[in-house]
Fold:
Amino acid sequence: MNGSAHRELNPLFDPLLNDFQKDFPLTPTPFADIAADLGVTEEEILVNLRELNDTKIISRIGPVFRPHRVGTSTLAAMAVPKAQLQEIANYISALPEVNHNYEREHRFNLWFVLTASTEEHLEAVLTEIEQNTGITVMSLPMLESYHIDLGFDLKR
Structure:
């Protein structure tokens, strides 16, 4: 079932996906606060968020930091043989320094952003990835920063 058909079946999905992208409560009890705003229980919120995650409609819930304010980062790309793509993508996704990765239709078909507290740690993780996969990682550090709004209006 695709994401839009699945959302139509569950009325909590739209506010969870749309309303809390930018206004997520920064409190000790954010899910209880969201539940109060929506007139449901905290457990209902957690169950629905788990379902959104399990069905891959969302990949994570967490903050997005400007990497150079809290350390360093690089955009990385790998040319992964198709037969190994899922296995290596799973390995990359499991690294705490990576919050997402993307498959692309290109020779460099796996792209991800790697963040670390120091340049040394960043380089160590890049080296570890190469050693564990046998595939060279192309590192593309940011030269200039542009701020874009990553909120997506899903009500359109």
User: Anything to note?
Assistant: Residues 100 and 112 are 6 Å apart (CA to CA). The chain has a mean pLDDT of 85. The helical segments are 3-9, 13-18, 30-38, 42-54, 67-70, 85-94, 119-133.
